[in-house]
Design goal:
The protein is of the alpha+beta class and 451 residues long. The strands form five sheets. Strands 2, 17, 18, 19, 20, 21 and 22 form a seven-stranded antiparallel beta sheet that branches. Strands 3-11-15-13-12-16 form a six-stranded antiparallel beta barrel. The C terminus is likely disordered.
Amino acid sequence: MTRKKKIVLVVVIVIALAAAGLLVWLFHGRSSGTTGGVFVQSVNDVNAASTGLANRYSGVVETQKTEKVEFDTSKTLKELLVQEGQQVTKGTPLFTYDTQSIDLQIQQAELEIEKMNTTISNDQSQITQLEKDMKSASSADKPSYSAQIQDLQAEIAQTEYNVKSKQAEIDKLKASIDSATVTAGMDGTVESIADLDLLLSGGLTNSDGSQSNTYIEILANGDLRVKGKISEQNIQGIYQDMPVIVRSRVDQSQYWTGTISAIDTQASTDSNVYYDSSDNRASKYAFYVNLDSIDGLMLGQHVTIEPDYGQAAVKDGIWLNSGWIVQEDNGSAYVWAAKEAGAKLEKRSVELGEYDSDLDEYQIVSGLANSDYLAWPDTDCAAGAATTTEYVFDDSEMGGMDEGMMDESMGMDNGAGMDEGFGVDGGTGVGSSVVDSADAAPIGGEDTAVG
């Protein structure tokens, strides 16, 4: 991994952990929002061995090979013969051009050739007559006859060239009639059909910004890849060859691994424009993931994509984010725990094992069980304190927060905003969810909250 890629990875992790810490403070670090005691949460819920921390982006499974069928803008569409989602085989007619105007062009060109051939015939007759007259002319007049003959010969040569050019034009027009029906070049599925009026007006562009004449795009039946979308605010957080995890939307425990193969730097001109929480226009960009395995994936399946920081690795036992643990100068460590919901809080000594520096997580070797409950350590924690699993935000608590803390600096707005599905998850007590463009508020489109 290059130095630049390492720096990007570290920055993304630091931002994610910072955001996680802020949200944990909101949910766990303020007793004023609880009812009946110090807020506690099940160890099973915050056990990082079964949860992860990463931004997630929406994606869809597509084929590696595509065919882009272009429209000849000099022609007129007669009939579109397929629709989006239709299965086609090689040779399936896709659309036909209107050849009526081409027939008229051919007739006009043939008339022009006929006129040019007549001109050539007349010039040749004049040359014959001039040569005959020059024989009986005086020596002084012969140069004049010779000059006229040369001019006519030059005119014939030019006209003959024009006839050949016009005939080539006719041959091309006739060939276009023969290919008036455009067919599929491979087996696959019609992925998209462009707006023809927009195409003809020059309103479609390729990823490099050049004008696009692609009318129909066909996805081949074969190897699969994942096409993801990311907002302009978050695009700096990914890079080519970055390892990622692709998860099923239906079953989060089902996942595939792969690497980002390409990132489009040109935003699409279609519906890839959305509005962030400040009503500012923002663009979305496509990126592509090559998978290590496609077993269990289906063409067109909707998935989520997240950077792979090792969160998919299965960890044994209990792993906690370092924020839950208080480490003392003598090397010992403890957590604020309760044996069950509503039980009294106690200062519980724990034995630490391995440390995951990438995710800032410690393995708990002994002293804690998944059935226990944890409180985020702060000044309200004391042995014997009452506990509760209910938490209520109050206005003063939220009002005291600097607006900037929930803005771009923490990645919680403008493309990575908290969405309707946000909730408390494990690991650090921070949720992770994905926003669909169809059902999300206009905060961040298809990107997700840090979580």
